[in-house]
Amino acid sequence: MEEICVTDMHTGGEPLRIITSGYPKILGNTILDKRSYVRDNLDVLRTRLILEPRGHFDQYGALLVEPDMPDCDIGVLFMHNSGYSTMCGHACIALGRYIVDNSLHKNKEIVDGRYVKTKIQCPCGVVEMKVEILEGGKTGTCSFISVPAFAYRTDIKVATSHGEITFDIGYGGAFYALVDISQTKLSFNETSVGELKRFAYEVTVAVKKSFEINHPEAPELSFLYGTILTDGKDLYSEDTATENFCVFGTNQQVDRSPTGSGVTARLAVQHAKKLIDIGKKRIFKHAITKSEFKGQVVGETALCGNFPTVCIQVEGRAYYTGRSKFIVEENDPFKDGFLIY
To answer: Which residues contact 219 (CB under 8 A, 6 or more apart)?
Structure first.
């Protein structure tokens, strides 16, 4: 009987299932090779762990792999109900805590009086983590410095069932369409989650049909991951949080957190439009759960192709929810997982 062990966490309400043992050996020289190998040869394990009856529609997973960059503590492959993503901020925040709690970090030095650092190799690149050490050695908030982020397109238009809308495309380890919901009759306070989800996915489909997306350095990253609906409050405010609602993946998965890579993409676009200065910290709030991430542009960096890029820091807190050992009985007709939606 097969067994796979996991540790479950959440960041801002968004679940993360960390797969700790039970996978076969994963082949590949690079992190992207490993991602391709898992996708092409071991995908049944994703469906068993992420989908029902062991998971659920909006489950999210992280498979720990050996990094191919020697200064990284772990490599990770992200998975969800429709496949494998290239970056996940909420997962990195949870993994930062997991790494330190399990002493997987090479550098144990305390910096700035109360933090330790760790590096995670993600499919989109290396993410630098800073994990808070509380009294008694417990771990607190975690923050990550993104891979170089940039505004891909700004103030472009597409036709939808709610009329023509103006939107931006930002890259924060993955590409997102960013839409101010006030252009429509929808409302975070009055519109159902189902209707918000349908509109966000409609935008994703329309943008994919109308615009070509190409990452200038990594063809494997050249796809629109999802759409983030926002409250339109892109101009920096020290006192006012800005809300958003993210729908990602081909099966229309709803993020329960403010979306770490989405916050990164939003800040990159806001900085490109001169709506926020370097070093100004903003609060990003999920429109439904009201969970919060803090984000700031920490500096400009080298060009990515022709795109000016920035480094973004995103901060949140993750919590443990359980540990499980899953089994597979061969005569189980639902052993490989299923979705109802």
So the answer is: none
Would you mind telling me the total number of residues written for the chain in this entry? Answer: 341
- State the Cα angle at 300 between 298 and 304, rounded to 5°: 130
Contact (CB, 8 A) for 73 and 106: yes
Residues classed as catalytic:
88
Per the structure block, which two tokens stand in for 109?
């030095």
Calculate the average pLDDT of the chain: 96
Give yes or no for a contact between 35 and 77, defined as CB atoms under 8 angstroms apart.
Answer: yes
Cα–Cα nearest to 210, from 165, 274, 247:
165
Residue that the structure tokens 């994919």 belong to:
208
Distance CA 34, CA 76 (A): 10
The answer to whether 272 and 312 have CB atoms below 8 angstroms apart is: no
208 close to 200: Cβ distance less than 8 angstroms: no
Domains in the chain with CATH codes = 2-145+320-325 (3.10.310.10), 150-316 (3.10.310.10)
Structure tokens at 12: 């801002």
The three-state secondary structure class of 38 is helix
Backbone φ/ψ region at 154: left (φ over 0), alpha (ψ -120 to 50), beta: beta
**DSSP labels for 262-282?**
HHHHHHHHHHHTTSS-TT--E
Q: What's the rounded Cα separation, in Å, for the pair 333 and 219?
A: 38
pTM reported for the whole predicted model: 0.94
Report the C-alpha gap between 323 and 16 in whole angstroms.
12
Phi-psi region of 107 (alpha: psi -120 to 50; beta: other; left: phi over 0): beta
Q: How far apart are CA 271 and CA 80, in angstroms?
A: 30
- Can you give the pLDDT at residue 117? 96
Question: Cα dist. 190→157, 187, 202, 292 in Å?
Answer: 25, 5, 19, 21
The per-residue pLDDT for range 241-277, each reduced to its tens digit, is 999 999 999 889 999 999 999 999 999 999 999 999 9
Using DSSP's 3-state secondary structure scheme, residue 194 falls into helix
